Amino acid sequence: MSEAAIGIYGLGTMGSALALNMAEAGIEVAVANRETDWLGPFMARAGDLAARLHPHDTLGAFVAGLACPRVVMFMIPSGAALDEMIAALAPLLDAGDTIIDGGNADFHDTRRRAAALAERDLHFVGLGISGGEAGARHGPSMMLGGSDRSWQHLRPILTSVAAEYDGQPCVAHLGPDGAGHFVKTVHNGIEYAEMQVMAELYGLMCHGMAMPPGRIGEVFAVWDAGPLQSYLTGVTAEVLQATDPESGHPVVDVILDAAGQKGTGRWTAIEALRMGQSASMVEAAVGARSWSAEKATRQRAETVLGGRRLALDLSTEALAGALEAARVLGHAQGFRILAAAAREFDWPLEFATIARIWRAGCIIRSAMLDDMAAAFDAVPPEDELILSEHFAARLAERLPDLRQVVVAAVAGGHAVPALSAALAWADTMRQGRGTADLIQAQRDYFGRHGFARLGQEGRHHGPWWS
Ligand code: 6PG
Predict the structure, then answer these.
(1) Of 24, 25, 38, 385, which has the maximum CB count within 10 A?
(2) 168-193: pLDDT as tens digits
(3) What is the DSSP letter of 263?
(4) Catalytic residue among 24, 35, 191, 262
(5) Which of 149, 152, 161, 144 is nearest to 122 (CA)?
């Protein structure tokens, strides 16, 4: 049997799709799974690709089947189970071998694991993989954090299975240890904001403009055919137009309005706040998912507080403008968190590269990301997306639409937490002088904190302390 270039442990949805993708790219792949009885059905499903897939039912045999230096990729949940597997695997490896975590991990855990394994001369790679099952099978976008040595070793494998945009593979080495998982986390935060914005626009069309789901789906389909093209816009168009075969109703009408979440959106919001930043649109999206899950409370509140919503007189052009402005602002907030993390962890994050590898394969891929890559590539480079020539002009054109939509929604009693967060952030950043003079005066009044005085050096106190 030929030695495998990589071993994939974990044959769930993502692991098996990635293993098949690699085999299809001509790579010999060793595979293993905690439940060994998954191996048979997986190999049967692999068809012709089975010739390059090598199943093992013990960890020892799995490691023995790998070419040296070895590469083992874990495709299992990144919590305690991963720590247990790393503890079991590490003694079987040699210095210079690499362990990859291809799941959605908290980057703090990735940093901890990388540091612990470095002491044993083992490389640990945190690989953010986006694109869901189809992406993993036919070309995901991949965000790698780890050593240069691991990247050089993995590069041929990863580039051969990654999504491509204009012939360029959507995979890059973004920095050491947790950099890849952090960028993936922020990707998911932007994904949350995008999905929430779309849900809010759907809500306005449905509850404010009395449009049936199929018609709203058609609007999203039109948007998907123009500058607002994105994977999520297309998904939204399709699901809104789908019919439930059992009831004959639109599928969305038979789905419970309580959203799940596995944690990456929450991590984005938490990390933003921890670093003195705010991803207000991501916070709004995470909060909205949490409130959505409180179905019983909302049903009671509808009776107690009254659930009346007014009809809205909005054009689909205004809604499209709101979506465009919100998309720019959501991504801008995401890139600001990346900038804060690059400063805090001394990561060499290149925003143009990140925008480039998000252009295909991943869940937030959109036509706009190509313009974002160009904005970050501009000379001189602009780190603030909202200040780049292209996006400042787009916002100047589209902010009035966002404002019109938010004003109408708020006046009509329609909840638009992410759209309002977007507008509030844009309006805050548009003011060279804000209102924090009062906050500083209040802090000084009750806590003698002092404040900086315009045109003078040093700390000052108000007359309440004289
Ligand atoms: C991706 C997705 C994928 C998944 C997340 C979000 O990039 O392929 O982001 O990772 O959708 O798990 O899941 P939740 O919405 O359940 O938090």
Answers:
(1) 385
(2) 999 999 999 999 999 999 999 999 99
(3) S
(4) 191
(5) 149
Distance, CA 188 to ligand 1 centroid (Å)? Answer: 6
Outline where 346-384 has alpha helix (H).
351-357, 368-377
Alpha carbon distance 436, 431 (integer Å):
12
- Euclidean distance between CA atoms 91 and 85, whole angstroms: 11
Of ligand 1's listed atoms, the one at least distance from the Cα of 135 is 8
Q: Residue 144: which of 112, 181, 170 has the closest Cα?
A: 181
415's tokens: 């909840």
The model carries a pTM of 0.97
pLDDT of 231 reads 98
The strand pair at 53-55 and 98-101 is best described as: unpaired
Q: Which sequence spans correspond to the domains of the chain?
A: 6-177, 185-429, 436-465
Architecture label for domain 436-465: Up-down Bundle (1.20)
Q: What is the mean pLDDT of residues 29-43?
A: 97
Instruction: Determine the Cα–Cα distance for residues 275 and 191; give it in Å rounded to an integer.
Output: 20
Q: Which of 183, 186, 190, 191 to mutate to test the pocket of ligand 1 (most atoms within 8 A of CB)?
A: 191
State the pLDDT confidence band at 1, using cuts at 50, 70 and 90.
low
Task: Please state, in angstroms and rounded to a whole number, the distance separating the CA atoms of residues 325 and 303.
Answer: 35
Residue 242: φ, ψ to 5°: -80, 145
Rounded CA gap, 292 and 258, in Å? 5
Query: Is 295 among the residues known to form the active site?
Result: no
| Pocket of ligand 1 contains residue 195 by CB under 6 Å | no
Using CA atoms, how far apart are residues 237 and 224, in angstroms rounded to an integer?
8
Pairing mode of beta strands 459-460, 451-452? antiparallel
Q: How confident is the model at residue 2 (pLDDT cuts 50, 70, 90)?
A: low
Cα 371 from Cα 355, distance rounded (Å)? 9
Average pLDDT, the chain: 97
User: Which residue's alpha carbon is at the smallest distance from atom 1 of ligand 1?
Assistant: 130
- CATH class, domain 185-429, is mainly alpha
Q: Which of 130, 420, 75, 417 is nearest to 259 (CA)?
A: 417
The encoded tokens of residue 223 equal 């948007």
In this structure, the residue with its CA closest to atom 4 of ligand 1 is 132
- Give me the mean pLDDT over the 55-59 stretch: 97
6-177 matches 185-429 in fold: no
Give dist(CA 36, CA 50) in Å, integer: 16
User: Domain 6-177, what fold?
Assistant: Rossmann fold (3.40.50)
| Catalytic residue check, 24 | no
Closest CA to 203 of 67, 355, 322, 95: 322
3-state DSSP helix/strand/coil % of the chain, to nearest 5: 60, 10, 30
